[in-house]
Specification:
Blueprint (H helix, E strand, L loop, with lengths): L7 E13 L4 E8 L12 E7 L13 E6 L1 E8 L2 E9 L3 E5 L4 H9 L9 H11 L1 H10 L2 H5 L6 H15 L4 H6 L4 H8 L4 E3 L6 E3 L3 H7 L11 H10 L8 H16 L6 E2 L1 H12 L2 H13 L3 E3 L5 E3 H18 L9 H11 L7 H12 L2 E6 L5 H14 L2 E7 L2 H11 L3 E3 H6 L14 E6 L7 H9 L6 E6 L12 H8 L4 E4 L11 H9 L12 E5 L5 H11 L4 E5 L2 H15 L5 E6 L2 E8 L3 E4 L13 E6 L9 E3 L7 E2 L2 H4 L2 E3 L2 E3 H4 L4 E8 L7 H8 L2 E9 L1 H9 L11 H10 L9 H12 L1
Parallel strand pairs: 3-6, 13-17, 13-18, 14-15, 14-16, 16-17, 19-30, 20-28, 20-29, 29-30
Antiparallel strand pairs: 1-2, 1-4, 2-3, 4-7, 5-6, 8-9, 10-12, 11-12, 21-22, 23-24, 23-27, 24-25, 25-26
Amino acid sequence: MMNLPSKVVMYFRVTYVQHNDKQDKCFMRGTVSRRETRNTFTALSSVKVYTTCTGLPSIPAKGEYWKVIGGAEHYLEDHDGFERHIFEFKSPTSIEFQIPNTLEEVKDFVAKSSDFKGIGTVRLFNIWNQYGDTEAMNIILRGDVDKLTAVDLVSEGDACTLIEGFKKYANLKYAKWFAEHRIPPFVQQNYFKMSAVIEDEHSGEKNTLPSPPQVISDNPYHLTTLGMPFRSVDQLAFTVFEKQLNDPNRLVAAVNQVLNEQVVPRGHTFGTHNQIFPHLKSLLGSDELAAQALMQSEEMLNFRLGNDGNYHHGSLYIMQDIIAERLSTLIHRKSEWCNFTYPKAISLAFEQLPFPLAPKQVEAVYSSLEHEISIISGGAGTGKTTVLRTILRAFSELKYNIHGIALSGRAALRLHQSIGFPTKTITRFLSDEKLESVDSAGEHVKHLVVIDESSMVDVPYMSQIILHCCPNVRFLIVGDHEQLAPIGAGKVLYDLIKSGLVPFVELDQVQRQDESTGIPEYSRVVRSGQLPASLSNKNVHFHVCDEHDIVDKCLELYRLNRSNCQMISATRKTTFELNNRCQMEFNSSSPELTYEYMNQVTNSGLRLNDPVLFTRNHASKRIQNGLLGELSTVEWSGEHYGCVQTQEYDEPIELIPELIIEMTLAYSITLHKAQGSQFPIVIIALNNSRMIDRSWVYTAITRSEQEVHIVGTKAKYNQAIEGGHRGHERQTSLQSTLASAVRRKSSVAPHGAERHIRAAKKEIC
């Protein structure tokens, strides 16, 4: 052992990192770098750092170089017969990111990063040999292509790869400034994602934006748009930047804060004066400042003041306008039917049916082919799947590229199984190349986007889908507007239907003539807002019990057929209790999933063979919020700590701490997590929650394929059905925005189209 000074300086390369913004904790492990020549411990030396996330200049990543300063504890650890020196820092004085500088560091960094494909050791050696350590890296960070290409073997493509790869680290020269001002790393990351250059739309001239310290010093309230709470920014603005109470930027940020807290979380896209003003007054401290804030924000277009005196959320207003403009164009366009092509495609699609379609189903087929945008809705068992398959066969004959999308992974999988065409989640669809009317070979292509389970799609998602598609893309929207409204703002499907402007067919007749479960008929009655004549009917069973007995009754039913059951509840409290009771009774002896977190072995609370649910999106891991699976192994393997097997993917998902932290038991799940999925048997815990309305009960019932068990009181059930669909009461302006857009555009159909459509219908029907 050696005596260390009170202030130790260590440079190290990160080999392992875990951070948790919620707990404000970060643990880093790394190997000591030779950059600190006075430090004699290198290859057999390791650094461990325990710190907070708040003080970090950025979120650390494996392979990066960091410098840590502070008090350290020194000890030895045995590693396969070799002694390794460990330097452990707890709450260090300073921790800073270091851009790789020496040739050795850069070679190691480039080799371990996916951002530098094709950049080999020889090219790097030539650059460093010509310019030296400091100048070589400065040239790359400046983006000096000419100096890089002046080096042997370095092409323009290689130069651009190096520049782009290191570009995201260029802003970290401001990281120390951010850390000194206690600005959280996630806010910094959001800032650094922004482009440092803006291009003039008229002249094309590119102008470099001011540095982060300049921007934030001038307007610290800019940080609220990057996720920092208003009151935290307020404190920073007053104490560090000496801003005044009536600073215009402060007033505008306060209005945004109120809109984002009081309007958007409730699903609204606008708020009334009575909903906005009291909260704004509370935030700013006076009526006078609140009134000034509203005037200032309107001038800066942060919200739009409607003719009715309502405050429309700025970005949501623009998103609704994007939706309305595109859909109004599609509404006024009709397909160019010829005498042969479309009737032939429809005939071929109909010939493959084992039985004739009902009149409403036929109408839905023609509506979808006749119009550039159309909606098909209907409850369980009304034949939406049959109609959709028929429509898509016809579009396939017409040489359309068909893109099936749905919000959840399970919904996308079910759509694929139903239609036989490739499907994706909306998130994956938006990450792919935009849909264009001409392909890379210059050939004209036709696209149809099918949005399934569209009741779940909110205004932001719908606007993103619209912007991802060129104006010639057609849309077929499929869903049930009586199901739960989206989690996010708006009620797109409901608004489009109620506008009366988008071609719409509702399938209202149960088509499953051999249906013995009774679920479609039962759900249809609930959907219409009526109380079923009998609370139990066929495979729908109502179990009357007191509120405090609901959990026990659900467990009693679950024991009868665990392998095919899914319990659904409204509140996290009931879900938590059901999950704990189930694991204790059915799986308490299985090995527990453990993992290394913050340099300690942590128990996850999950056990082998437990059903599990992912509660956050992790796009790089193919994981979406709501993905269900089973914990198939809990064995450690390298950096992985077990696997989850899902229906969506053949290969199991390998678990890392960041995933495990966001996993929970799934014996019981909330209905929002179940929406878009179906299960053989569903047990519904109908507890006394304000969340439960008619749409909740109806959606829960329709999650079942074979059998439903509703557990609760008659009073709560009656109240939910008779109370209506609260999601329909959301304050939105999409209907009026769409009506205005339609009025501005011509409604003349393509010449001759109507005559050909009528002739084709007459011939086939």
